[in-house]
């Protein structure tokens, strides 16, 4: 099993930056992809970014150029650097991790953190 804890959320003014962290514990070396999602009030949870153990990234079009995902495999951590934040970025941000068996092409587990609040306002 894997446990995920997000940190780094808070309040920031429009145009500012935040760096979110996701710390995994448990079977961290069985994790393949890690990613970030967010959910604003009245909206569905939406995909932001993923990164594999090999470093391949996928970024949602609507945040591309402002958000960057990275990870440290040895530490079992993933990060989301957010720049030029806008009020519409206000949401709860969630970390995700997938446990995948490459040999059998099977998803073994799908894990989520508790979320961290990001508020962008003046």
Note the beta-strand portion. over 45%
Please work out how many helical segments DSSP would assign: 0
Structural class: mainly beta
Which regions contain 5 or more consecutive residues with pLDDT less than 50?
none
Strand segment tally: 11
Distance between the termini: 41 Å
Task: Report the oligomer.
Answer: single chain
Compute the gyration radius: what is it?
14 Å
The amount of helix comes to under 10%
Q: What's the average pLDDT? A: 95
Shape: elongated
Major sheet size, sense and barrel closure: 7 strands, mixed
What letter string, H or E per element, gives the SSE order?
EEEEEEEEEEE
Question: How would you describe what is shown here?
Answer:
The chain has 122 residues and is mostly beta strands. Helix content is 0%, strand content 58%. It contains no helices and 11 strands. It has strands spanning 2-7, 10-12, 18-26, 31-39, 46-51, 57-59, 67-72, 77-82, 91-101, 106-112, 116-120. The strands form 2 sheets. Strands 2, 4, 5, 6, 9, 10 and 11 form a 7-stranded mixed sheet that branches. Strand 4 and strand 5 form a beta hairpin.
What topology emerges from the helices and strands here?
Elements (H helix, E strand, L loop, with lengths): L1 E6 L2 E3 L5 E9 L4 E9 L6 E6 L5 E3 L7 E6 L4 E6 L8 E11 L4 E7 L3 E5 L2
Parallel strand pairs: 2-11
Antiparallel strand pairs: 1-3, 3-8, 4-5, 4-9, 5-6, 7-8, 9-10, 9-11
